[in-house]
Design goal:
single chain
Length: 128
């Protein structure tokens, strides 16, 4: 996805996992437009919030201590896992196709691997 360059830059925006999480939020936002109106305050809202929460937790935790950042990375992983359930529900309710669900699952799998790798790297540098 295209990322517009801003005059003001924040260090966490350099994280590849943050960029990928932002992209996934846009993928979900586009998908939920196909959901029926009765899902507006239910599954579509939950899916959007969970997807956006991945990047939001990275941004929130980045400036803190290593321990705080690891905690927020874990929250981002929890949100990614929540997206798996949302995507599966969407497919089961015929709001998205099975191939769209598989594409979501691929995205989420890549995100959680990146998040786990980042968490492990931070935890390694915490060890004496």
């Amino acid at each position: 996805m295209e990322n517009k360059q801003s005059i003001y830059h924040f260090k966490f925006e350099d994280l590849k996992v943050y960029q990928k999480a932002m992209d996934f939020g846009e993928v979900v936002f586009a998908l939920i437009k196909k959901f029926p109106a009765e899902e507006r305050f239910a599954l579509s809202s939950q899916f959007t919030r969970a997807a956006d929460s991945i990047a939001l937790n990275l941004a929130e935790g980045y400036p803190g201590s290593d321990a705080q950042f690891v905690k927020h990375i874990n929250y981002a992983i929890y949100s990614a896992n929540e997206c798996v359930s949302c995507s599966t529900n969407a497919e089961r309710r015929n709001y998205i196709t099975s191939s769209e669900n598989e594409e979501n699952r691929k995205y989420i799998s890549e995100l959680t691997k990146m998040l786990s790798s980042l968490r492990n790297k931070i935890q390694q540098r915490q060890k004496p």
